[in-house]
Specification:
Helicase, Ruva Protein, domain 3, 7-stranded mixed beta sheet, 10 helices, binds S-adenosylmethionine
């Protein structure tokens, strides 16, 4: 008989004793879904979020409640969203009577998001990462959800892509210029049961200050669009799309950028500085 899969609640029998005990008892997982088992990774996510009794936090893809429980212990109001019937039943059993946890049966890609500002702390399915960020982060017209902050477990390669100082695609550049996206730590495959084929990352997302307004977002996204359309042009040409020449010169200097710098070489945080300065200077003129 083949050894039982590590997905099973009963660990496979082994001739060598396990070197380390799992961070918590293994949970029933018939689906091959990668559940977090590392206390370090779970604590890191929850502590990074800095939640308190006034916070509202979404655990998207809550599974058996690996994150839901420590999130609830912070005193925050928790919405645990899950679509799998077995996990939902388990969540209901664990948190059905909890005054601050609501178990929501739904798809994390379509479930209505709260109107009031909220945070997300979640270990999300790898294949939904892009769709989820599209929901949570602003769109091209400057619209955005009420996302205040997010601490997510995503595939390592995905995190690397969206955290590049100079992203390769316009969508990641818009995200990176509007939000600070940072890898807090590598989450090794062994931190999950069953272990996935690749490592993951704790991806921390925070708003960059001064970029909440529609006007500043329009300026920012117009410059980025131009920079991506013609990356070899000087950055000042992209800035000149949204500001008169003298302002363009000034803001580039203020952002510490060389006059001749290529648009395609400007890091996302510099585009954020440029947008804020353009708005600031145009207000003063
Ligand atoms: C990587 S597991 C994380 C589970 C748990 N949060 C943990 O960290 O151990 C992802 C979870 O998302 C759920 N899921 C997958 N697709 C979903 C969807 N479209 N909407 C809601 N939940 C989904 C799966 O059932 C699974 O429980």
């Amino acid at each position: 008989m083949p050894a039982r899969s590590p997905r099973s609640s009963t660990p496979a029998r082994s001739s060598t004793p396990a070197r380390r005990r799992p961070a918590r008892p293994a949970t029933v997982n018939h689906h091959g879904i990668h559940l977090l088992r590392s206390g370090t990774a779970v604590r890191g996510l929850v502590e990074s979020a800095g939640l308190g009794p006034d916070s509202l936090v979404l655990d998207l893809g809550a599974g058996p409640g690996t994150l839901t429980a420590p999130l609830a212990r912070t005193g925050a109001r928790v919405l645990a969203v899950e679509r799998d019937p077995e996990f939902l039943a388990r969540l209901e059993r664990r948190f059905g009577a909890h005054p601050k946890v609501r178990v929501v049966a739904g798809d994390l890609v379509t479930v209505p998001l709260p109107r009031r500002p909220f945070q997300v702390v979640a270990s999300i399915p790898y294949d939904l990462s892009t769709r989820l960020l599209r929901r949570l982060l602003p769109d091209a017209t400057g619209g955005a959800s009420g996302l205040a902050a997010a601490d997510l477990v995503v595939e390592w390669g995905f995190a690397q892509r969206v955290c590049r100082a100079v992203p390769r695609d316009l969508e990641a550049a818009r995200w990176g210029a509007t939000y600070e996206l940072r890898v807090v730590r590598r989450v090794r495959a062994a931190a999950f049961t069953p272990a996935p084929a690749v490592d993951s990352a704790h991806l921390r997302i925070r708003s960059r200050p001064g970029l909440a307004g529609r006007r500043v977002r329009r300026v920012l996204y117009a410059m980025l669009a131009e920079a991506f359309r013609r990356p070899d042009q000087p950055a000042r040409t992209a800035v000149a799309e949204v500001a008169v020449r003298s302002v363009a010169r000034r803001v580039l200097g203020d952002a510490g950028l060389d006059r001749g710098v290529r648009a395609g070489a400007v890091p996302v945080d510099r585009w954020a500085d440029l947008a804020r300065s353009v708005i600031d200077l145009s207000r003063r003129r």
